[in-house]
Specification:
Number of helices of chain A: 13
Helix content of chain B: 10-25%
Largest sheet of chain B: 5 strands, mixed
Order of helices and strands of chain B: EEEHEHEEEEH
Strand order of the largest sheet of chain B: 1-2-3-4-5
Strand content of chain B: 35-45%
Largest interface: A-B, 11 and 16 residues
Number of helices of chain B: 3
Distance between the termini of chain A: 77 Å
Number of strands of chain B: 8
Distance between the termini of chain B: 34 Å
Shape of chain A: elongated
Radius of gyration of chain A: 36 Å
Structural class of chain A: alpha+beta
Shape of chain B: globular
Structural class of chain B: alpha/beta
Oligomer: heterodimer
Largest sheet of chain A: 6 strands, antiparallel
Chain lengths: ~450, ~150
């Protein structure tokens, strides 16, 4: 039997006889098993060399000898000498013996386990970082809020003292002015608390139809209350733009961008921030523009821990988290070319597109062919939200819109079955589909329910 | 963390690099970058392991960064010789093996010993005769045709 050719192969090859005796091993076996040829020769039985509990080597060798057909083992873990291996063994009939070919995956298995462990560690670190960033933001917020509340409180306290003096002196006119001043200070505090409330009340997973104009205005108000916009010219070009997102999360994003813009303007003479909303066919764009120091490394600014601020002033996580939030609403952040300062563009899918994909995600995972598609039109956000929340999880597809002139187009492009015009909105003759109108929101919801159950 | 430590000493046109530890997927070979010398001597005596990922890294690294007139490999341990015999490209195109270890067995004391050989000692693929302190002949503890195969490359 000529086995010389096997000696030049890179995989371990052994020959086992009918009795399980080890008759031959090729050259590479001594390297593979980390045993000298002298030691290998001293091993008489194949099962003395290769030891595994989860696979009957003898039985399978006998099967091959009887059937004359090759046989491949599953992935095996076996011990040989002082080492353990993960391999697949192939048993091939060879004259009256069985040739055993070892395909080893030990290194791949070790690497797989090592990298799996490292990925888990990275995930856990990432979660800790996000948590710590949330705590840092909360700390900054609390510091800002307590500062903001303490100054009107101090003024109110002083005014109250002066008012009591005026009352004692029966100077009612002055006391009345003091009272007005007191009211004004308390209104300021109330506004700060209201803003805080709107930031915190939204759960992460709450999606709703929101107006970007309102969210941007609230974010700007919040920054104003921190008193850092005093010497900055603010140019707001806003209009109603509905999207499906989480208001609190978006406020976090806009506040982060606005604070960054304020920081970038620290050394500028003429400080200006422009916030502009723009609508395209499928998207809503938020332009955030400042004439500050500009962006040094555009390809790095969304990287975790990247910050151009002084040590201790920035965590280098704000933009990373903002990007993640925007992406969670199927949006994106890009940087536009600008000669002076920075120009960020945050893009969100329009309400109808996002509500359509959201239907896919929340209802059935994928749109079933027979699922009914409703285009729901209303100008009022609350009505859209009520319908959206009511039918969340039901096997229909809702496409929400607040743009009356686009209803026909939306019906066609999404091949909708029904169009629902809420609260007396004009019907659209171009839609081949079922229209109805009522003066009560409940009527509409009931009507949709009827259509679904009838189908 | 790198599993390999590299100590580099430069003397004139010659650089001596001692490699200590394991050459694997985590090994940091950057200490061997940007060495300005005509000759690089690699002392591999304390390399305890090299796996298939380490070999890939090593071969790629040599091809990218070694621009020496001569690369000398000395004190090559058995683990390195075994890999040289399996994988092409371990030795640089301007490389030369100065010395390497080979396994011998002392049947009188039942001891395995590694003896440092030079390529010149291996004639016609045969292991040189080595003796113990008692002048007793040792047995070469590998397959000669396999172990000395790297000398033919």
């Amino acid at each position: 039997m000529d086995t010389k050719a096997f000696d030049h192969l890179q995989n371990p090859i052994l020959l086992v006889n009918k009795q399980g005796g080890l008759e031959y091993f090729n050259f590479v076996c001594s390297t593979f098993f980390k045993m000298s040829p002298r030691k290998l020769k001293a091993i008489l039985k194949f099962t003395e060399l290769v030891q595994t509990d989860n696979y009957d080597l003898v039985e399978n060798i006998q099967k091959v000898l009887i059937s004359g057909n090759p046989l491949v083992s599953p992935e095996l873990s076996f011990a040989a000498g002082e080492n353990t291996y993960t391999s697949i063994l192939k048993f091939i009939p060879f004259e009256d013996k069985v040739l055993v070919h070892i395909q080893d995956f030990s290194i791949e298995k070790q690497l797989h386990e090592k990298y799996k462990e490292q990925i888990l560690e990275l995930q856990s670190t990432h979660e800790q970082i996000v948590k710590s960033e949330k705590l840092t933001s909360l700390g900054e917020l609390i510091a800002g809020i307590s500062h903001e509340i303490s100054s009107p409180l101090t003024v109110a306290g002083d005014t109250l003292y002066v008012m009591s003096q005026n009352l004692q002196l029966k100077n009612y006119e002055a006391a009345s002015k003091d009272l007005q001043e007191l009211e004004q200070e308390f209104r300021r505090i109330k506004q700060i608390v209201a803003n805080m409330h709107s930031m915190s009340r939204n759960k992460d997973e709450d999606l709703a139809v929101i107006d970007l104009q309102i969210v941007l205005e609230k974010s700007v108000d919040f920054i104003k209350e921190l008193g850092i916009l005093t010497d900055i010219e603010l140019d707001l070009q806003l209009n109603t733009a509905l999207i499906l997102a989480n208001e609190g999360k978006l406020q976090q994003v806009f506040i982060n961008f606005l604070k960054n813009a304020v920081d970038a303007l620290a050394d500028s003479k003429e400080k200006k921030i422009e916030v502009r909303l723009e609508s395209t066919e499928e998207s809503v764009l938020v332009h955030l523009i400042d004439n500050g120091v500009g962006i040094q490394d555009a390809d790095k600014i969304f990287d975790m821990f990247y910050s151009t601020k002084e040590l201790g002033e920035g965590t280098g996580l704000g933009l990373t988290i903002s990007q993640k939030i925007v992406e969670s609403f199927h949006g994106s952040i890009s940087i536009a070319d600008s000669k002076v300062g920075a120009h960020f563009i945050i893009e969100f899918p329009k309400l109808e597109l996002e509500s359509f994909t959201s239907s896919n995600r929340y209802f059935t995972g994928e749109v079933e062919v027979e699922d009914l598609k409703f285009v729901v039109y209303a100008e009022n956000i609350d009505y859209l939200n009520t319908v959206y929340q009511h039918f969340l999880g039901k096997p229909i597809v809702l496409i929400l819109t607040s743009e009356k002139n686009r209803v026909s187009e939306i019906c066609e492009s999404y091949m909708a079955d029904y169009v629902v015009h809420l609260l007396g909105a004009p019907l659209n003759d171009n839609c081949k589909i079922f229209n109805f109108e009522s003066k009560s929101l409940d009527d509409y919801i009931n009507k949709i329910e009827e259509v679904i159950s009838g189908s | 963390m790198s599993s390999l430590e590299i100590k580099v000493e430069i003397s004139g046109d010659q650089a001596l690099a001692k490699l200590i530890g394991q050459i694997n997927e985590d090994s940091d070979l950057s200490a061997l970058e940007n060495i300005t010398a005509k000759t690089l001597i690699l002392d591999l005596k304390e390399v305890s392991l090299i796996n298939s990922c380490g070999i890939r890294e090593w071969v790629e690294f040599q091809n990218q960064h070694f621009d020496f007139e001569q690369v000398i490999y000395e004190n090559c341990p058995q683990v390195i010789i075994e890999q040289m015999n399996i994988v092409a490209g371990f030795i640089h195109k301007n490389g030369k093996i100065k010395s390497f270890y080979a396994p011998y067995f002392n049947e009188f004391t039942d001891e395995e010993v590694k003896i440092l050989l030079t390529p010149q000692e291996v004639v016609d693929g045969k292991a040189p005769v080595k003796k113990d302190a008692e002048d007793r002949e040792l047995e070469f503890d590998e397959i000669e045709a396999q172990y000395f195969n790297f000398l033919n490359k």
